[in-house]
Design a protein that fits this description.
46% helix, five-stranded parallel sheet, 540 residues, 11 strands, alpha/beta
């Protein structure tokens, strides 16, 4: 593989993009000019429909995009991932999150099923009340302490599957080193009936360490017995030594492996809070849904491969239409945390400027991913999407049915808003202001008002529609985005699985913390930072 910019397909796609940028181009014309456009540009996989027909796309576009995939040797890169090759080249590791949801019967990683069995036994003990705290009371509340991939995935899935929550326990997620998050959480809890999960692949993350130590102090204040830690703390980590040193009983340690990236880890023991929240059977359904998408990604022809099609369009928009961000708008309040989860998945994977050969990339890479649940987004940022100057493709996500069986009319309104927004983005509207008020037609005032009310349209979007929001379909949807991110990294010739960019901030934080703790201890910080430290101290 090499930079996509050197391929004939990339150059052809740049030339090809010009037709979509002509003044008279109307995205909606693509529908009038070709019957069955939806059929030609939509894909189904089990209970998931991808409608990509509202994109800048003709059969010729698709041919050129698939040429790009071929010239970037996508098929062999997909095989390399499933074969466990060291595709995380800078850390010399495999990226085998697909092995986490591979059925045991066909798995090459028995440690996965062993860990699932350990999780299952633990969940059963907690749910049944057989796991008790230092005063022999059952556990009612569980606090997951972790950040990034040790928080975002479990928190998002637990929230999304709230309708499947079991009554035995309440889940809480603490991630920020800001003490108020832990304090506000613990204020409502009883140390006798609270269990902490310390989730940290490295077991070196400052935020997690600080929160775990504070949580232990909170417990000790009431228990006043060091042995209570063993009853109220479990850990999920690849650093078993550090966790043991913290005081976690070795029987309460759930392993993580170096071939599981943090942002791809919710399927591993990092998903323990999910299993506690919705039960192990539903957690296994989540895995099964992801495995189903894994099979689709591995086996489907590239032209009928959902993650591949979505990735090719995103890479084309970034390379030929100067797109710098993409909005993900799930029309489901239960999926409100999905954009936050996808932010780490996307931007920690694709925010890279060195290619696999260690050279500076020659094309834009990465995308700023943002979004919130719809329909709320319509009352917040959709104005910019409709009349702004930026080219921002949108992924709409919706479920055909809702959990409530009595609120079907409201669910219909939710879906109608979702579908109408992608339609409005495509069609736009030329405004005749005389329709709405008494200004003279063609008067200066009318023309001015018309301009402000004109909506350009021609804004592309995908719509992902699932039959219902259940563990299986959610697993399928999340895996789709994991594989989309991998495909984009292959097309851009970058490593999706390392994150060297986050190390500098951590190192500097140590230096700044030292300067804050011992005034005058260092002067090799810049004038801004030194004065910020001084002002904060003066106001403390
Ligand atoms: O943000 C950097 C990062 O290493 C993420 O990749 C990871 O998910 C997060 O910090 C937490 O890391 P750990 O699970 O090792 O505490």
């Amino acid at each position: 593989m090499s930079s996509p910019g050197n391929t004939s397909a990339w150059i052809a796609l740049q030339e090809h993009s010009k037709q979509f940028q002509q003044a008279d181009f109307r995205l909606s014309d693509l529908f009038t000019n070709s019957a069955n456009r939806f059929t030609a540009f939509s894909l189904r996989h089990e209970n998931l429909l991808l409608d990509f027909s509202k994109n800048y796309l003709t059969p010729e576009t698709l041919r050129l995009l698939l040429d790009l995939a071929d010239q970037q040797q996508l098929s062999s890169a997909i095989k390399a991932m499933y074969d466990g090759e060291l595709i995380n080249t800078t850390e010399q590791r495999a990226a085998l999150h697909v092995a986490l949801r591979q059925p045991a019967a066909s798995s090459d990683h028995p440690e996965v099923e062993d860990t699932l069995a350990k999780m299952e036994a633990f969940v059963a003990k907690v749910h049944s009340g057989r796991w008790t705290g230092y005063s022999n009371k059952r556990i009612t509340d569980i606090v997951n302490i972790g950040i990034g991939g040790s928080d975002l995935g479990p928190a998002m899935v637990t929230d999304a599957l709230d309708a499947f929550a079991v009554p035995e326990v309440n889940l809480h997620f603490v991630s920020n080193v800001d003490p108020s998050q832990l304090d506000n959480t613990l204020a409502k809890l009883d140390p006798e009936t609270t269990l902490f999960i310390v989730a940290s692949k490295s077991f070196k993350t400052l935020e997690t360490h600080q929160n775990a130590a504070s949580a232990r102090a909170w417990l000790m204040h009431k228990a006043n017995d060091e042995s209570a830690t063993g009853k109220h703390f479990v850990a999920i980590t690849s650093n078993l030594e550090a966790a043991t040193k913290f005081g976690i009983d070795k029987n309460n340690l759930f392993p993580l492996w170096d071939w599981v990236g943090g942002r791809f880890s919710l399927w591993s023991a990092i998903g323990l809070p999910i299993a506690l929240a919705v039960g192990m059977e539903n957690f296994r359904q989540l895995l099964a849904g992801a495995h189903s998408m894994d099979q689709h990604f591995r086996e489907a022809e590239l032209a009928e491969n959902m993650p591949v099609i979505m990735a090719l369009l995103s890479v084309w928009y970034t390379g030929s239409f100067d797109s710098h961000s993409t909005a993900v708008v799930p029309y489901s309040q239960s999926l409100n945390l999905l954009p936050s989860f996808l932010q780490q998945l996307y931007m920690e994977s694709l925010g890279k400027s060195s290619d696999l050969q260690g050279k500076p990339v020659s094309t834009n890479t990465g995308e700023v991913l943002w979004g919130t649940a719809g329909s709320n987004g319509q009352h917040s940022y959709f104005q910019l999407l409709h009349q702004g100057t930026q080219f921002i493709p949108v992924d709409f996500i919706a479920a055909a049915t809702c959990q409530s069986k009595t609120k079907t009319e409201q669910q219909q309104h939710l879906l109608a808003n979702c579908f109408s927004q992608s339609l409005a983005l495509m069609e736009g509207k030329t405004e005749d202001s005389t329709e709405e008020n008494s200004v003279e037609k063609d008067s200066v005032e009318a023309n001015s008002t018309n301009a402000h009310k004109t909506i350009a349209g021609n804004k592309p979007s995908n719509t992902l529609l699932i039959s219902e929001l259940n563990p299986y379909n959610l697993g399928c949807l999340i895996a789709l985005y994991e594989h989309k991110v991998y495909v984009q990294s292959v097309l851009w010739n970058i490593n999706a699985f390392d994150q060297w960019g986050v190390e500098l901030g951590k190192k500097l934080a140590e230096q700044v913390f030292a300067a804050m703790s011992e005034p005058g201890s260092t002067t090799d910080l810049d004038d801004s930072t030194l004065n910020l430290i001084k002002q904060a101290r003066d106001w403390r």
